Request: fold
Amino acid sequence: MAPTGNTRLRAARQGLGLRSQAAFADAVTDAARRIGLRVSVTTRTVRRWESASPPWPHPEHAAALETLFRRPITELGFSPPWSLGGASGAARPAVAEIPAGHGALGTEFVGLPPSVATDYLSVTVGYRQLYWALPATRLHRPVAEHARLGADLIAQVPLPSRRLFAAAVAESSLLAGRLEFFDLQKPEMSQPSFVVALQAAHEAGDSLIGAAILAHMAFAPAFSGDPTRAEEARDRMRAARAFARRGDAPSEMIAWIDAVEAEVETRFGDIRRALALIRHAEDRYAAPDDRSCPAWLDWFSETRLAGFKGNTLMVAGRGREARDTLERVLRDLPDSAVKQRAVILADLAAAAVLEQLPEQACALLGETLDHLGRYWYATAMDRVKSVRESLRRWDSLPEVRALDERLYDWHTTVNSLVG
Reply:
């Protein structure tokens, strides 16, 4: 009987001496780590790759496969989805017809080597990791320039590597938008970055990162304080869910989308809906799912979901429950979660205000300011100022006056104004 399935990949795998699918999965994972990617390949994924109809690999898996075999994945039995026309017969998405240099994808074609995709992705991964260590004011400019460079080059990358390259551009522009929105508090800058990210995700045919981008685009109307923008935010969330379904998102990513929508509903006053979404997200975590999230979704975990829950409970006026939840989050956060730690401390201070404990709230805000002195994060500072506003009835307390001395010292004031 003639062999079936993806015989080209199987032959290449056996040519490297990898006799089992488990050994192959380990080899691809090791290859990913050598080029700076934090992905984990399972035997289930390998079985799908070696099946008769292998799916086009996720961009980071593709980079690892090309590193391991030192050849394009189109030579390993994979057919790009645009060459097949997709289930509906649609052609491969075209590059946006917007001139290069205007914040959108370029169209001029000048041939580049296929290796440019892997090289560009390696830099993208480096910036992803630096996000957790470097100040946003230092990191934003190189990330934004990297994203713009990628957008200008997409049309110049050879077709077999273009999907991988475009997905890396989408991630880079998403990171630029995250820095602009959360770290620098410049939402007017973040939206164009998210639009370019969405265009690049379209070029890559990557529905999962498209879902992530759309969910991020819901934050601007939600944080605006304008109740007339509620439907705008909810429309973004509906789009994010549609893209997540299209990409067969793993449970953890669905839980993150639930958490984002819960924050949207919290800010527009529908606390019952927000808490229902949090419960749904907790259920998604409890359900077994051996699919791993994309490596770029490194801003979410079960502990950070509890952080969303604590904030919602606090806004709902359930101070004791919020405090218990947030204290557990603070204990469980990894040391690298320096930005989230400041947010949780500020939320704990808000919960203390609800419990009529102003001295404790001031102590927690002082600890938050200590943390922000080492790791500045504008979103956390915004929370600090919100809690300080809620302390107005205790303005005469020495602890509140001492807090103001800290809050309006030279260092904090300058950081607040320059981002």
About this structure: The CA atoms of residues 56 and 78 lie 6 Å apart. Residues 7-75 form one domain. The chain has a mean pLDDT of 87. The chain has 21 helices and no strands.
